[in-house]
Amino acid sequence: MNMEYPEKGSKAYLFSIVLVAVLGGLLFGYDTAVISGAEKGLQAFFLGAKDFVYTDVIHGITSSSALLGCIIGSALSGICATKLGRKKSLILAGIFFFLSALGSYYPEFLFFEKGKPTMSLLYMFNFYRVLGGIGVGLASAICPMYIAEVAPSDIRGTLVSWNQFAIIFGQLVVYFVNFLILGDHTNPIIEKTAENIYIVVSGSDAWTIMTGWRYMFGSEAFVAGAFTLLVCLVPESPRYLALVGKDETALSVLARINGIKKAREILNEIKSTVDVKSERLFSFGVMVIFVGIMLSVFQQAVGINAVLYYAPRIFESMNMGNPMVQTIIMGIVNISFTLVAIFTVEKLGRKPLLIWGSIGMAVGAFGVAISNLVDGVAPIIPVVSIMVYSASFMFSWGPICWVLISEIFPNTIRGAAVAIAVAFQWIFNFIVSSTFVPMYNMELGGMGDRFGHMFAYALYGVICVIAAIFVYKLVPETKGKTLEDMTALWRNRNKK
Question: Do 11-234 and 286-495 show the same overall fold?
C-alpha cells in the first residue's frame, strides 16, 4: 500500500492526543478526591438505615472502597494493555468512570426504593465505587504508558509529567465542584453517642443528606463521558501497533508526530526490539522488575498520601489558624511545584530530581518530627516543614515516578511490568493511608500523642533517605534515551 506521509511532524497533533490522555489523569484525581466532600452526607444517609448499624468502621471501608478497585484495575491493566491495546483499555477505563459516577449518584437504580438506606443498597453503592476504582487503576497505569509511547524522547518526560499535574488539578477541581454543589447548604452534624454508635443531630440539612452527595458523585459523569468520546478519536500507540504487526499504521502515526524520515528511524528501532509480541516478565532479569516495583513502593511509603488525605487533621493539631486555609495553601504549593518538575525534567534529568526531592522531603518530615519532640516550637515551623515536604514530593516523586515507570521497561514486557509496578503503588497507598491515623495517635509517657506525631514523621523521613540512596545506586538515568534504548540497557545489565 502506497501512502502519502507528512515530511514534518505536527506538535499540535501530538499535544492534542496527549491532552486527551492527560484527561484520564484528571479523572484519576477527580474520582479519588470526590469522596472528601461527599462522605459526611453519605454517612448521615446510611445512619438512617433500619436493618443495620452504620459504624465508623463500615464508613471507613465505604469511603476507601474505591482503593480496592484501584488495586484490581492496575493489576488487570497489563492484560488489557497487551490484549486490547492502550486505546481500547482507556476507553474501557472511561466507561467504568462513567458507570461509577451514574451508579454512585443513583445506587437505587432498578432494584431499590430511592431514599431508603439499607445494607443491600450499601453493597450496591460500594460496587459502583469499586467500579470507578477499577477505572482509576487502569488509567493510572495506561495513561502515562500511552503518553510515553507516542512522545518523542526529547520531550517525553515533560509530557508524562503533565499526567501528574492533571491528577493534582483534578483533585482541586473536584474540591471546587463540591464547594459549588454544597452552596448555601450545610454538612450534617454527626455526634458519637457510644462506642461505634453515631447519630445525625436533628435540624441537620436534609438536602445534604438525601441529595447533595449524589450530585457530587454524579458530576464526574460529564468529565468521564467527554474523556470516553475523545479517546475514540486518538490513534493507538505506535509501539503497540508495531508489537502486533501493524507496521503501516504505526508508521502513519509516527510520521504525523515526527515527520516521515524520523518516523522510519523510530519504527526500525521499535522493530529491532520486537522480535516477538511479548516476552517472559523476567527475560531482562529480576533487577528491572525490582527497580520498577520499588519506585512505586517508595512513592507511597514516603507517606505523601497520609499527608494529603489528612491535611486538615494535621494542621488542626498544629494550632495554626484555620486548617482548611492551610490545606488550600498546600494545594496551591502542590500545583506550583509540579510545574517545576514539568519544566525541568528534560534539563536536569530524572535521577537528580528524585534524589533532591527525597532530601527535601526528609528535611520537611524531620522538621515536623522535631517540632513535636521539642517543647516551645513556634507553630509556623511544622507548617513550613510540611509545606517543604509536600513541595519536594511534587517536583520529584509525584511526577517523576510516573515518568520512569512509563519508560523504564523494555517494549515487550512493558504492559505486564507497568501493571505489577502500579498494583504495588495502590497496595502501599492503602497500607500507608490505613496505618497513618493509628500511628499518628500513638501515646507514650508524658509526651501523650505527640509521640505518635513525632514517630510518624520521623519514620517517613528515614524512608525518604533510603529512597534517595536507592535511586542513586540502582535507578538508571533515562533522560534523552528512546524507549528502545531501555531494551539494550537491561539486556546488557542482565549479561553482567
Answer: yes
pLDDT bucket at 398, cuts 50 / 70 / 90:
confident
Residue 115 region, left (φ>0) first, then alpha (ψ -120 to 50), else beta? left
State the Cα–Cα distance between residues 94 and 20, nearest whole angstrom: 11
- What's the whole-model pTM score? 0.79
pLDDT in tens, 430-443: 888 777 767 777 77
Strands (E), 308-391: none
On whether the CB atoms of residues 374 and 402 are closer than 8 A, the answer is no
Q: What CATH number was assigned to the domain covering residues 11-234? A: 1.20.1250.20
pLDDT greater than 90 at residue 226? yes
- Backbone phi, then psi, for 70, in 5-degree steps? -60, -45
DSSP string across 430-444: HHHHHHHHHHHT--B
Q: Quick one: which H or E segment has residue 416?
A: helix 414-440
Mean per-residue pLDDT, 462-477: 92
Q: What pLDDT is attached to residue 441?
A: 72
**Locate cell 486505546: which residue?**
87
Residue type, 38: A
Q: Is the pLDDT of residue 99 over 90?
A: yes
CATH number of 286-495: 1.20.1250.20
Q: Indicate the domain borders of the chain.
A: 11-234, 286-495
Q: Which amino acid is at 314?
A: I
Confidence class of residue 1 from pLDDT cuts 50, 70 and 90? very low
25, 168 contact by CB (below 8 A): no
The radius of gyration of the chain from alpha carbons, rounded to an integer in Å, stands at 23
Report the distance separating Cα 483 and Cα 418, nearest Å: 14
The confidence score (pLDDT) of residue 468 equals 95
Residues with Cβ within 8 Å of 476's Cβ and at least 6 positions away in sequence, in order, are 291, 408, 489
Helices 11-33, 86-105: axis angle to 10 degrees equals 30
- 35 contacts 63 by C-beta, under 8 angstroms: yes
Give the three cell numbers for residue 13: 497533533
Full DSSP string of 21-52: HHHHHHHHHHHHHTHHHHHHHHHHHHTT-SSS
Block residue for cell numbers 443513583: 106
Q: Which residue has the cell 512513592?
A: 299
Assess contact for 399 and 360: CB atoms under 8 A. Answer: no
Which residues touch 21 (CB under 8 Å, ≥6 apart)? 90, 143, 146, 147, 163, 231, 234
